[in-house]
């Protein structure tokens, strides 16, 4: 039965429509997921960049007062779960101050890091791995209004975790699957309806041809689709009418021939 369904016009059109509708649905879901992920990432980066600028200004004020903004950094980290660390570095890479939950402040402070972003005079955002290549994060490098003897600015390094994006992405995939299931059945219904609209007239043509083949030349195929199938049915009916007229003319000629033969 499956083979008959597969080899029938209905099966081929029905399967093709389902395939096309599913491709369109999957493409819409994937594009929507990508757009949502991009939007969430941009919002996260913009919010973190704003916090980095606020922190940079607070550092400048604290440095001028010969203090360090310990409490401010603690509050900033507690307000945003996406902040992995905050490092204040000199242009030579020396860590002047650090607020890092992975390590104690004593471990980080005084260490020297390397990077082409050190001493930059504009805000930089780049991909980074932390700690030691384990977790992928976004590194925001914010110049601070504190300069060394050569006039190079210090830098505030803010590590921003991407875990919230991954969590949001999983939620979007789950919601997408919840939407996919009902739309899948809707696609089946639409495909079945459209296929029937195409194959029903063809079935009528087949049945009509079978009736006419058995000798009923008075039969008419009624198809009202307003397209080529209706025109085809009209041509078929015209052909049947011509056959009927030809048959009647032939019968009349045979009748006359029999009459002449009798005479």
Quickly list its features.
263 residues, five-stranded antiparallel sheet, 6 helices, 5 strands, 16% strand, rod-shaped
Notes on the structure:
The protein has 263 residues and is α+β, with helices and mostly antiparallel strands. Helix 5 runs parallel beside helix 6. 62% of the residues lie in helices and 16% in strands. The mean pLDDT is 78. The chain has helices at 2-7, 9-64, 70-79, 105-108, 163-213, 228-262; strands spanning 83-89, 95-99, 124-130, 135-147, 153-161. The chain has six helices and five strands. It starts with a helix and ends with a helix. The chain is rod-shaped and about 140 Å long. A five-stranded antiparallel sheet has the order 2-1-5-4-3.
Number of beta-strand segments: 5
Order of helices and strands: HHHEEHEEEHH
Average pLDDT metric: 78
Q: What is the helical fraction, as a range of percent?
A: 55-70%
Discrete helix count: 6
Shape: rod-shaped
Low-confidence stretches: none
Please compute the radius of gyration using only Cα atoms.
Answer: 39 Å
Please list the strands of the largest sheet in the order they lie side by side. Answer: 2-1-5-4-3
Span of the ends, CA to CA: 62 Å
Strand content: 15-25%
Which structural class do the helices and strands define? alpha+beta
